[in-house]
Amino acid sequence: MTVTINGPGTITGLTSATVPQVNASTQVLIGGPTTSTYTKGLQAFGTSGGANGSAADLMSWRYSADTVGGQLGLFRTCGTAALDASVPVVTNDTLGAVTFYGSTGTGMAAFAAITGFVDGTVSSSPATLATAISITTGSTTATERMRVNSSGEVSVQTKVLVGGPNTSAGAFGVQVYGDSATFAPSTLIRGFSNTTAGPNFFFVKTRGTSATSTDAVQSGDILGAVSFLGSDGTANQGRASITGAVDGAVSAGTVPSSLIFVTGTTVGTTRMTIGSNGKVDMYNAAKVIANSSPPAGGTTGLGLEFTNATNLGIFVGSGVPTLSAAQGSLYMRTDGSSTSTRMYINTNGSTTWTSVTTAA
């Protein structure tokens, strides 16, 4: 049976006496029983449909020569009558929801919904209604998974999978998948402003128990890490990382922070640390490799400098040293052939070098 509402007071398919009025105590049941235990005002019943839907589907079909399509409007007022908009809604009021129900065998359950609610200022002049969207899902309880607030900020409560599977066994929050050859799994952070400021990537650690807590960290706490993993054929293995950690006492305005560099093959091993005091500790051999052969007479561009004093360090070259360096600097000669031509020390803070005689 089809009931057509052609216009005000004109109904095809039923007599006006058999059409219920829609109000707070009346239901409209389409395609189903004459009564319903559910309190919803408008209810549509029908078998599951194919490509064209079913009698239980609701359709909004709009025709016009403009860009506007059909809409589903969910309205909320705190007034005492249907069209009473004199009493404004307030923060945390629900404006409407699309809720998804399914039969459990003994009744209906609903744990997924898209809900609009007020999350800020409401005003009549100028017209202001701070509105947010909440998305909930679940199996035995409804849990908020994502929220878009009235400022446009998006918060996600669990994992985000981009370009990959619909599920992941990993506990990682944001996961990006794709063909490496096309840069699909890459992350781009691009900043724009006519200033010296650039984009940043922040790791923030607190010992609090909530997302916004600021409980102080302690010495030894890991502030964040960048880990590099590769598959060995059966599992992903991580042997290299750069980690930020607290390495001293924490107090107001003071968080001593260090960097730890790890590499390895079957296990990751700390190779270098840069302490909060600026001290660099290396736990293996250190190499300084030039892009070309050691220059004749040396150059300050090839060597190790130890302080912010101009050119105080150890330099390398062929032939006798001719570079200008700080007094006390050392020069290692790669082609030295005698005990007095292998190493030199700068004696005047300029280009004067004195050979150091070695034992053999």
Overall tally of domains: 5
Give the biggest sheet: 5 strands, antiparallel
Q: How many DSSP-defined strands?
A: 21
How far apart, in Å, are the first and last alpha carbons?
111 Å
Please provide a written account of the structure.
The protein is mostly beta strands. The chain folds into five domains: 1-72, no CATH class; 73-158, no CATH class; 159-201, no CATH class; 222-282, no CATH class; 303-356, no CATH class. The chain is built from no helices and 21 strands. The strands form six sheets. It has a five-stranded antiparallel β-sheet, with no helix packed on it. Strands 12-13-14-15-16 form a five-stranded antiparallel β-sheet, with no helix packed on it. Strands 17-18-19-20-21 form a five-stranded mixed β-sheet, with no helix packed on it.
Task: Give a short synopsis of this structure.
The protein has 360 residues and is mainly β. The protein contains no helices and 21 strands.
What distinguishing features does this structure have?
single chain; 360 residues; mainly beta; 5-stranded antiparallel sheet; 21 strands
Helix and strand layout, with pairings?
Blueprint: E1 4-7, E2 10-12, E3 28-30, E4 42-44, E5 94-103, E6 108-124, E7 127-137, E8 143-148, E9 154-156, E10 160-162, E11 174-176, E12 222-231, E13 236-246, E14 257-264, E15 268-274, E16 280-282, E17 303-305, E18 313-317, E19 330-333, E20 343-346, E21 353-356
Parallel strand pairs: 3-4, 10-11, 18-19
Antiparallel strand pairs: 1-2, 5-6, 6-7, 7-8, 8-9, 12-13, 13-14, 14-15, 15-16, 17-18, 19-20, 20-21
